[in-house]
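Design request, tokens follow.
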């Protein structure tokens, strides 16, 4: 028996650094075509606490179960924000998943630095930005160049201390987890992704994709999310 509409999990999507909620646009349309209820948060990416506050605000407005999905830095945010009892499952898409007392930067430092991290610089306001070249060659290299340039143009700055903010709760420790690894990722270590998927005991899918699998392979990413929805919705 399928879950009734009122008991079917709502999908909450959390974007990564140097991105906004529109980075989920291709996945959103596919989820909606399958009847899923979807919310994509718009995080400021100024600090972990600021982003978590936005996600918790979204969760407060939802009745029923939730599948919380994080891409990249969004995985750190969902790890901290996902302890709401409504959150029944977590989906990580080429994402960080720190443990309690650990930061995103700690996870980055534990593995050889991918090429994309060499394309980041401080702007005049003291925040970090990804270069256009970084977007084209290291973050979204499997997308048309014109699309990578659009992503570069719309990117918000990342607070300079964000990757140092430590997680105080790890929602993945007592929830069902899914992980989508991008095997061609040049922004987040592939070795880190695989290690996290194993640590989280996540149901794992590997895609031959850049860091932006949510745009280059949205069908596959949406399929994983829908699987989580199906398995966690009340029946």
């Amino acid at each position: 028996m399928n879950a009734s509409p009122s008991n079917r999990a709502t999908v909450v999507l959390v974007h990564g650094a140097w991105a906004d909620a529109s980075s989920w646009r291709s996945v959103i349309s596919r989820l909606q075509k399958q009847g899923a209820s979807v919310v994509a948060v718009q995080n400021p990416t100024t600090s972990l606490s600021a982003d978590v506050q936005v996600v918790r605000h979204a969760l407060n407005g939802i009745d029923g179960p939730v599948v919380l999905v994080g891409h990249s830095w969004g995985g750190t945010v969902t790890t901290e924000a996902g302890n709401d009892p409504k959150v029944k499952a977590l989906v990580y898409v080429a994402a960080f998943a720190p443990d309690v007392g650990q930061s995103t930067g700690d996870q980055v430092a534990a593995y050889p630095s991918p090429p994309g991290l060499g394309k980041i610089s401080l702007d005049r306001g003291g925040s970090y930005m990804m270069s256009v070249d970084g977007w084209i060659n290291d973050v979204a290299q499997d997308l048309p160049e014109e699309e990578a340039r659009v992503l570069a143009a719309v990117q918000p700055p990342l607070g300079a201390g964000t990757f140092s903010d430590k997680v105080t709760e790890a929602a993945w420790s007592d929830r069902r987890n899914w992980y989508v690894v991008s095997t061609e990722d040049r922004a987040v270590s592939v070795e880190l992704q695989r290690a996290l998927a194993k640590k989280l005991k996540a149901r794992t899918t590997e895609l031959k994709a850049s860091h932006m699998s949510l745009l280059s392979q949205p069908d596959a990413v949406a399929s994983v999310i829908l699987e989580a929805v199906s398995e966690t919705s009340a029946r």
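Comment from the thread starter after seeing the answer: thanks! The radius of gyration is 16 Å.
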